[in-house]
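Input (structure):
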């Protein structure tokens, strides 16, 4: 699989032309990888109609040369040359430039700008992120591989569930199995919680030991080619109580309602409303999580966000999560999450682990 980074850069250059901008300074790590293929850190990407430069240092120079094509890789001596000086040397005479104001601090940009002499400089927010919203076939293939690894690792990890096992130990086993199967790391810090702690939407695994009748909430993901999967399953160890079963059934109905509505042309707000109509009409309305999902890709949380009052209209190629949840303090929580690709008339599921409740 090989991404067409040049085509992606041309899309950004077209946007720069619309705004009469001569060059853009790209600082966001995921944005640099998306536009160039470079997966390391400590880099700055300069994009113009004529030339593209990737500035890095000795630690990443060879790696950048191997990972990029049709890009001039610049090895900067950080002790001898400031970043602003390097930019000005490469582009000495420009009228108007843009920089990613979301990805550099005020102090960082002030230090860079102190060496620049361009008459017009403007901040740009979300320009590259907008290009990343719709995934191409290469990106979807990476996301599918990551989801497949997570599915397989979960299946093996569930065989280790037994009374007395600790949250932290089970989480480590899950992460180890993902790495064994080819994951570059974890998509995010694994959330694996038992019993009443499952009511923490983003809790950290602890020394809490599993007891009969506990809810088990597992939220985790693998990484392939920099792209991240994100799946949640909730189980009960033993026979569920009437309340636990009702929580699970409600969340599952809310998820199914949303999935039935997913297709190109549906707004994020409308999709969120469908799921929350089920949740709000249940006995658990006051304990329902607010959002329904988010975009997925090089970053764990990307646009579009499936939440109230977001008018964004889904397009074929958006990769999103659908993850309704109920969280009752001191009792427990249930969340079910799938990764899907939006299509013209529906969706393609990336995550395939069964939603069995009893273990």
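Output (sequence):
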């Amino acid at each position: 699989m090989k991404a067409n980074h040049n085509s992606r850069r041309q899309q950004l250059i077209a946007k720069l032309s619309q705004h009469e901008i001569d060059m853009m300074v790209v600082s966001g790590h995921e944005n640099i990888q998306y536009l160039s293929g470079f997966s390391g850190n400590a880099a700055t990407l300069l994009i113009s109609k004529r030339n593209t430069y990737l500035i890095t240092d000795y630690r990443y120079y060879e790696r950048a040369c191997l990972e990029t094509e049709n890009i001039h890789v610049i090895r900067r001596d950080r002790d001898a040359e400031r970043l602003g000086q390097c930019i000005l040397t490469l582009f000495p005479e420009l009228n108007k430039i843009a920089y990613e104001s979301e990805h550099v601090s005020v102090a960082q940009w002030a230090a860079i700008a102190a060496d620049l002499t361009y008459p017009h400089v403007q901040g740009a927010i979300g320009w590259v992120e907008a290009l990343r919203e719709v995934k191409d076939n290469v990106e979807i293939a990476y996301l599918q591989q990551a989801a497949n690894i997570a599915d397989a690792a979960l299946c093996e990890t569930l065989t280790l569930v037994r009374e007395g096992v600790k949250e932290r130990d089970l989480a480590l086993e899950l992460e180890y199995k993902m790495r064994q199967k080819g994951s570059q790391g974890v998509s995010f810090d694994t959330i694996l919680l038992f019993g009443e702690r499952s009511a923490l939407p983003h809790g950290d695994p602890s020394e809490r030991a599993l007891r009969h009748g506990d809810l088990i909430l597992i939220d985790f993901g693998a990484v392939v080619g920099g792209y991240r999967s994100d799946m949640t399953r909730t189980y009960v160890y033993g026979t569920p109580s009437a309340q636990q079963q009702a929580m699970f059934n409600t969340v599952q109905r809310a998820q199914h309602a949303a999935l039935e509505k997913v297709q190109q042309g549906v707004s994020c707000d409308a999709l969120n409303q469908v799921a929350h109509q089920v949740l709000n009409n249940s006995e658990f309305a006051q304990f329902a999580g607010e959002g329904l999902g988010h975009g997925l890709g090089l970053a764990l949380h990307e646009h579009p966000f499936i939440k109230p009052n977001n008018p964004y209209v889904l397009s074929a190629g958006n990769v999103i999560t659908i993850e309704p949840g109920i969280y009752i303090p001191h009792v427990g929580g249930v969340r079910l999450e799938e990764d899907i690709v939006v299509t013209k008339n529906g969706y393609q599921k990336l995550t395939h682990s069964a939603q069995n409740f009893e273990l």
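Notes: The longest helix spans residues 137-157. The mean pLDDT is 97.
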